[in-house]
């Protein structure tokens, strides 16, 4: 099981939460200011609607409240490379204050609720919320670490290692239980293929193998893994890059 595989130090559990989620880094007062700002900026998107468009100026920093977002680059001939997913609680466009134009497109995977913070609104919030700046930097650092792992995935890992690593990543980020836990998973096999540089047929074949070998099943927009430790060993998965803080409760 998971607790018998991970190296010494903090280990992911059902209560573990990554610092990529801003609220996990904020004290009570700052957290209240943050959550108030999010409630004021809340709006909804339908499946496929764009939050950001490659080449266009950033309009707002988006914090995902419910649902998932996919980020991608698309070539003129229609081929896409998925660059990442944004989960509930995560900032989607953290480079708002640094970029003149977006380097990717971001769309809602399904029905989505997110808070949109304008540049002026974010700067005002940073002045009032003393811990927010450090929390954003920490989240940005973890996002960069995740991006490096995705690069390694498409560069040198085998197909089975790629898929196993991504499943472990998304499972741990959502606080998946070490014993037959389930987490949200609204991602299609086609989207997994675009993230991993594989065909959907290849993804489907490996998922069937993983279900038989590790009890890793994707059904009804949920991911269940009954033998996480074995799957993590197959992926050579080390969760340190996710910024897990095992001391904070859910």
Overview of the structural elements:
This protein has 2 domains: 2-15 and 158-245, Sandwich (Jelly Rolls); 27-130, Jelly Rolls (Sandwich). Helix content is 39%, strand content 21%. The protein has 8 helices and 12 strands. Strands 3-7-5-6 form a 4-stranded antiparallel β-sheet. Strands 2-8-4 form a 3-stranded antiparallel β-sheet. A 3-stranded antiparallel β-sheet has the order 9-11-10. A hairpin with a 5-residue loop joins strand 5 and strand 6 (80-86). Helix 5 packs across helix 8 (228-235) and helix 6 (189-196) crosses helix 7 (200-214). It is globular, with a radius of gyration of 18 Å. Residues 1-15 and 246-250 have low confidence and may be disordered.
What is the secondary structure topology, with strand pairs?
Blueprint: H1 2-5, E1 17-18, H2 28-40, E2 42-45, E3 50-52, E4 61-66, E5 69-74, E6 80-86, E7 105-108, E8 112-117, H3 119-128, H4 132-156, H5 159-173, E9 181-184, H6 189-196, H7 200-214, E10 216-219, E11 222-225, H8 228-235, E12 244-245
Antiparallel strand pairs: 1-12, 2-8, 3-7, 4-8, 5-6, 5-7, 9-11, 10-11
GO biological process, one term: regulation of DNA-templated transcription
Organism: Sphingopyxis macrogoltabida
GO molecular function: DNA binding
């Amino acid at each position: 099981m998971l607790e018998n595989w991970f190296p010494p130090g903090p280990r992911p559990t059902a209560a573990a939460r990554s610092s990529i989620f801003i609220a996990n880094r904020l004290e009570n007062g700052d957290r209240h200011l943050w959550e108030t700002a999010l409630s004021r900026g809340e709006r909804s998107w339908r499946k496929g609607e764009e939050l950001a468009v490659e080449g266009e100026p950033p309009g707002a920093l988006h914090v995902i409240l419910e649902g998932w977002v996919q980020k991608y680059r698309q070539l003129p001939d229609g081929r896409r490379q998925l660059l990442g997913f944004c989960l509930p609680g995560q900032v989607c466009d953290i480079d708002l204050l640094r970029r003149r134009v977006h380097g990717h497109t971001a769309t809602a995977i399904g029905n989505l609720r997110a808070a949109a913070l304008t540049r002026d609104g974010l700067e005002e919030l940073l002045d009032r919320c003393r811990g927010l700046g450090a929390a954003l930097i920490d989240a940005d650092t973890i996002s960069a670490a995740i991006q490096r792992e995705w690069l390694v995935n498409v560069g040198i890992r085998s197909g089975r290692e790629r898929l196993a690593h991504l499943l472990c990543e998304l499972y741990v980020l959502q606080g998946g239980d070490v014993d037959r836990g389930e987490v949200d998973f609204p991602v299609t096999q086609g989207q997994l293929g675009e993230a991993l540089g594989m065909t959907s047929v290849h993804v489907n074949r490996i998922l069937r193998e993983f279900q038989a070998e590790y009890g890793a099943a994707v059904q009804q927009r949920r991911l269940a893994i009954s033998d996480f430790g074995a799957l993590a060993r197959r992926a050579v998965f080390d969760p340190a890059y996710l910024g897990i803080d095992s001391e904070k409760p859910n």
